[in-house]
Design brief:
The protein is of the alpha+beta class. It is built from 14 helices and 23 strands. It has four domains: about 90 residues, Rossmann fold (3-Layer(aba) Sandwich), CATH 3.40.50; about 55 residues, Dna Ligase, domain 1 (2-Layer Sandwich); about 120 residues, D-amino Acid Aminotransferase, Chain A, domain 1 (2-Layer Sandwich), CATH 3.30.470; about 100 residues, Glycinamide Ribonucleotide Synthetase, Chain A, domain 4 (Alpha-Beta Complex). It binds adenosine monophosphate (AMP) and glycine.
Length: about 425
């Protein structure tokens, strides 16, 4: 089978790493990929967001199966365009991807199908949004409707701050057209988890849960990012909680999308807040999480490729996946300046030494190969640059190993959080 993975981040490196190990995979391509992915796949310079370009590439390379990593091409209809060209692709149609492409669509969908979530209002009028905030009081959460790379959500601790967030989205357009409409919602308290299920249109097969770390700084301080580190399994989601999330969140979503004429195929990623009143859905994503995918692929014992194909073929009903019980933990190393404007082009050393450690994988997220002073080097080329991932028998041990690898990396132009996994480590220490 000739496989093409679309994307060029840490998630796609982890997907390529897992797919390249499949006996079903004869040839693996990635568009556009990155220098880490180039170790396991042939990278071709086509942007993930160039829908006609990716279709043309898949035709030229006689690709049998495409796996789409990021949300933007899904929302733009890449899977529909590939299907129209007769090419099988993993991921939802544009109609089903609206679940992630529009927060307003998602919130109304939750309301129609009784899926537990935070109370909300949606606004295209600035004054009405502000009046709603004044009436509700703080803390309160302001969200840009459209895609904003994980940064379009502002947790506001005062009414003035929330009014400021509305101004920045609706007047200053800091997220562009994504802020033409905003969602304002109730602040939920609890522990957050990322829950994943493969879906074939009708059947949902639960994968495993992970916990991400959204804030840029240690102790969950500072602005939100795309995710600074993750680990799995997480004690926040035990078997009973996983069953409850399947029943109250995932299954009604799969039924609802099917009933509304846009059945979902691909991976559903529910961002869940586990509150004292049970799980509430913060958001849906229509793709694997990044960096959650890195820990999921490390823990997956089964061949990933047949599972992805079964989702496309409507064959998940009798499917089963096996996972390592050990913990996988990943630490994101980001370029200085992230989540604002990251510094590009700084040289990263020590990658070979870090990757040589036992049970460690260094996934590349935002890197580029360059020649500097006649030498081949890897440089930073994005906000989140590396996902340094390790396995261990406990969260503590996986964490220790991941930071041993981080400490091998010589990169003054980057930084990371030093406390990934802290909630679970504290729980383990209490035992
Ligand atoms: P979202 O992209 O909607 O998942 O939001 C990004 C992050 O903001 C989430 O992962 C949460 O940490 C936080 N967040 C979003 N909505 C809420 C809410 N209603 N209450 C508390 N925190 C929230
Ligand atoms: N790590 C969260 C996301 O992928 O949206």
């Amino acid at each position: 089978m000739r496989v093409l993975v679309v994307g060029g981040g840490g998630r796609e490196h982890a997907l390529c790493w897992a797919i390249s190990a499949s006996p079903l995979c004869d040839a693996l391509y990635c568009a556009p990929g990155n220098p880490g992915i180039a170790q396991v796949a042939t990278c071709l310079p086509v942007s993930a967001e160039d829908v006609p370009g990716v279709v043309a590439l898949a035709q030229k390379e006689k690709i049998d199966f495409v796996v789409v990593g990021p949300e933007a091409p899904l929302v733009a209809g890449l899977v529909d365009a590939l299907a129209a060209a007769g090419i099988k692709a993993f991921g939802p149609s544009a109609a089903a991807a609206r679940l992630e492409g529009s927060k307003a669509f998602m919130k109304d969908f939750f309301a129609r199908h009784n899926i537990p979530t935070a109370a909300y209002g949606r606004f295209t009028d600035l004054d009405k949004a502000k009046a709603f905030i004044t009436a509700k009081g703080a803390p309160i959460v302001v969200k840009a409707d459209g895609l904003a790379a994980g940064k379009g959500v502002i947790i506001c601790h005062s009414v003035a701050e929330a009014h400021g967030a509305i101004d920045s989205m609706m007047t200053e357009k800091v997220f562009g057209a994504a802020g033409n409409e905003v969602v304002v919602e109730e602040f939920l308290e609890g522990e957050e988890a990322s829950f994943f299920a493969l879906v074939d249109g009708t059947t949902a097969l639960p994968l495993v849960a992970a916990q991400d770390h959204k804030a840029v700084g240690d102790g969950d301080t500072g602005p939100n990012t795309g995710g600074m580190g993750a680990y799995s399994p997480t004690p926040a989601v035990d078997d009973a909680m996983a069953a409850q999330i399947m029943k109250e969140v995932i299954e009604p979503t799969v039924r609802g999308l099917k009933a509304e004429g846009s059945p979902f195929k691909g991976v559903l990623f529910a961002g869940i807040m586990i509150t004292k009143d049970g799980p509430k859905t913060l958001e849906f994503n229509v793709r694997f999480g990044d960096p959650e995918c890195e820990v999921l692929m490390m823990r997956l014992k089964s061949d990933v490729l047949p599972a992805l194909i079964a989702a496309v073929d409507g064959q998940l009903e009798n499917f089963d996946l096996r996972w390592y019980d050990e913990t996988a933990l990943t630490v994101i190393m980001a370029a200085n300046g992230y989540p604002g404007t990251p510094e590009k082009g700084t040289v990263i050393g020590g990658l070979t030494e870090a990757g040589a450690l036992e049970d460690v994988q260094v996934f590349h997220a935002g890197t580029k190969a360059e020649t500097k002073d006649g030498k081949a080097v890897i440089v930073a080329n994005g906000g989140r640059v590396l996902a340094v991932t390790a396995m261990g028998p406990s969260v503590r041990e996986a964490q220790t190993r991941a930071y041993q690898a981080v400490d091998q990396i010589k990169w003054p132009g980057g930084f990371c959080r030093r406390d990934i996994g802290w909630r679970a480590v504290a729980r383990e220490a209490r035992k």
